[in-house]
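So, can you check?
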Amino acid sequence: MAVSGFANRKLVVGRRPDPTALSVPLLVLLAGRSDAHDAAKVAACARKAVPDARIEILAELTHFAMPTAMPTQTNHRITDFLADNQEKQAAPGAV
């Protein structure tokens, strides 16, 4: 039974961070076939909120399959992101 089957459900969410206060690199991976969210809309909101973020949509994946369905491809995206940011920090003049 989906959560919509519970009449008195209450969505519990934390506070959203202030995107202007973010000073660390941000990678957002979204599942293109998710039933939990519209990946294109989330990507657009994320780009607007954090313009310097790297945002990628994994078109083949569903929301719940993301961590396990394509681990090699997903892990490559994460490690590439980390390596890119490590190189930027190691570059002369980096803060």
